[in-house]
Amino acid sequence: MHAEPTTDPARPGTAVVTGASSGIGDEYAERLAAAGYDLVLVARRTHRLTRLADRLRSEHGVDVTVLTADLAEPDDLAKVADRVAGHDVTLLVNNAGINGYGPFTEVDSRLQARVIAVNVTAPTVLARAALPEMVKRGRGALINVSSLLAFSSDMPPRPGTGRAVYAATKSYLVTFSRTLAAELGATSPVRVQVVCPGYTATEFHLTQGDRSVEGDTPIAEGQGMPAPDVVTASLAALHTGEVVCIPALTEPAPVRQLAAAEAEIRTAMGGRLARRYL
Ligand SMILES: NC(=O)c1ccc[n+]([C@@H]2O[C@H](COP(=O)([O-])OP(=O)(O)OC[C@H]3O[C@@H](n4cnc5c(N)ncnc54)[C@H](OP(=O)(O)O)[C@@H]3O)[C@@H](O)[C@H]2O)c1
User: 3-state SS of the chain?
Assistant: First the structure.
């Protein structure tokens, strides 16, 4: 069942954050609650979400719903998609992600399928559920959390080794977001952003396969960019309309150069066979 439409356009509306039980997602929830968003928090660890929801309600006076779901499970994903399609949802943060690192030929193919399900299928299904209402209302935003590893295909064997499927899922989010943003158009009131963090200090590096970390493991400082900095960059970029947000990239010129190189490659579209293949 969908929530009632947000009648007051001055209010931010409802943000759905996947993977809100830790790390970057927990920080999005914190910041969005502080900005006045009502929240729907999605992840598998209900106890973490409930604790966060209780605190955000009491500290910020916003409405917070906990939606326990395993995004790799079709029935759970459908349940979240149904909520995301609600008239009140003005922001979807597709943040949940798992790594499944390991040599390609050795990692269990069922785990590789779950990496694709959580990192690719779920964000796509949820975006598809959310966007029609946003477009209809002329208001809303989609944030997809990718990774700098999206740009790692040409890296020498290390440290890229063991990351082929994960990196490819994150590349998908970059291409998906950029192409979708282009499809909606630069003047669309509905914004699409892909944020590509580098190494970030979260539990992500402690996870095994797709199992959550048990208990509350403190994350030592110095283990990468703090999650709050990633979210600061993402929310600032949402404000300015930057589609590809790279929190630690001081000068965004390489993103423009990448687009220019792609445009040059696309000149081959429908062209003649290149001489080197003759
Ligand atoms: N940390 C980094 O260095 C880094 C760098 C670049 C990009 N990223 C990306 O940033 C995003 C957030 O990661 P993080 O660093 O904050 O790591 P994290 O602390 O491990 O958070 C991952 C979140 O995803 C949720 N999740 C995992 N599998 C799920 C499933 N099947 N269904 C529902 N929720 C699921 C986890 O919750 P439950 O376990 O409770 O389900 C958790 O809330 C990910 O997409 C990751 O790929 C991270």
Answer: CCCCCCCCCCCCCEEEEECCCCHHHHHHHHHHHHCCCEEEEEECCHHHHHHHHHHHHHHHCCCEEEEECCCCCHHHHHHHHHHHCCCCEEEEEECCCCCCCCCCCCCCHHHHHHHHHHHHHHHHHHHHHHHHHHHHHCCEEEEEECCHHHHCCCCCHHHHCCCHHHHHHHHHHHHHHHHHHHHHCCCCCEEEEEECCCCEECHHHHCECCECCCCCCCCCCCCCEEHHHHHHHHHHHHHHCCCEECCCCCCCHHHHHHHHHHHHHHHHCCCCCCHHHC
